[in-house]
Amino acid sequence: MNEILDRLQPIFREVLENDDLVITEMSSAKNIENWDSLAHINLVSVIEQEFKIRFALGELETLNNVGDMIELMKKKMKR
Prior knowledge:
By secondary structure, the protein is an all-alpha fold. The protein is 58% helix and 0% strand. The protein contains four helices and no strands. Helix 1 (3-15) packs across helix 2 (37-51). It is globular and about 35 Å long.
């Protein structure tokens, strides 16, 4: 599994309040219970703090799933 995905797993579990949740690169708000707009804001905030990156609103609107988010995060962490 990918290192970023491994680090995201506990964040998603905590924010979405589901200790059994297993995310994959194909995971999205469409296929994960409790991932609503408020949870999305909380996820983004915690991920920004944990990885010391910042997302622009326009960037977030283009993401379809966790895999897209990981690719964007990799680009931001290289800067």
